[in-house]
Every structure is written in C-alpha cells, then in structure tokens.
Amino acid sequence: MDDCSWMYRDSPQELRMMDYCNGVQGFINFTTSISINFTEDGIRCPCRKCLNKKHLHLDGVMMHLLHKEFMENYMCWYAHGELFVRDNSMEEKVVGSTSSSSNVHRVANDNSNPYRTMVMDAMRMN
User: Fold this and answer.
1) Residues 16, 9: Cα–Cα separation, whole Å
2) At what angle do helices 58-68 and 13-32 cross, to 10 degrees?
C-alpha cells in the first residue's frame, strides 16, 4: 500500500473511524488479491493480539482489526505479499507467506530500465 497513514493517525474520532474502516477493507481487498495468503485456516491476522502469528478467516481478521487495530509498525504488509525495500541498499525483497514459512526472493533494483520501472509501477511494486 502506498499510504498507510490511516492505520495509526490521530484525528477526530468519527473521521478516523471512517478512514480506518475504509482502510481495513482495502487491506482485506489487497490480501485476498494474492492467493498465497490463504491457508485452510484463513489468512494471517496482523492485529495487536495475533501479530501475524495466527490464521483467521476473513471475517475474523476484519473484526480483530476493527476492535484491536493493527500491530505496531506494520506499514509495509510484508506477511501479506507487499514488496518492500530494505534500508538504502539497492535490493528489493518480495515476501509471500505460506502456512509453514515465508518465501523470500531477491530482485536487483535497476531503476535505470524504463520498461522495468513501468512494469513495477503497473504492479504497484515500486
């Protein structure tokens, strides 16, 4: 996700709640768009209690996020397939989760290739 400030924003209660509910729905939509996130038990729950360690069905994850909120510092949804760049090294990591372990693939970050940049932008990986 590009802007996850809604996850931890301090704003008036009604505005924050509306932004937060829409954001949680966006998180669910993002998560369900990646099939590797699913197991028999559901998807990883990133709430403050589960900390991505428990798998719950979608409605359970939504309820946990609405009542318990997201775990601290989960701005990049790495356990749900989101790409992140670590430090300032020229390397990206793609993290996909499975029921038993994480799959990590390293990709060279070559921003000089305009076609790669275009594809990465289209896939929201930049």
Assistant:
1) 7
2) 150
Measure Cα distances from 115 to 89, 107, 118 in Å: 21, 15, 5
What tokens appear for 46 in the block? 């990133």
- Cα separation values, 73 from 48, 79, 115, Å: 10, 13, 32
The domain containing residue 66 runs over which residues?
5-75
In the block, residue with structure tokens 């719950």: 56
Structural domains in the chain (count): 2
- Looking at the fold, whether 52 and 98 belong to one and the same domain comes out as no
Q: Which residues pair with 85 in a beta bridge?
A: 92
pLDDT digits (tens, 9 = 90+) for 42-66: 999 999 999 999 999 999 999 999 9
Identify the DSSP state of 104: E
Same domain, 63 and 90: no
Q: Which residues contact 107 (CB under 8 A, 6 or more apart)?
A: 91, 92, 93, 94
pTM value surpassing 0.85: no
Does residue 53 sit in the same domain as residue 33? yes
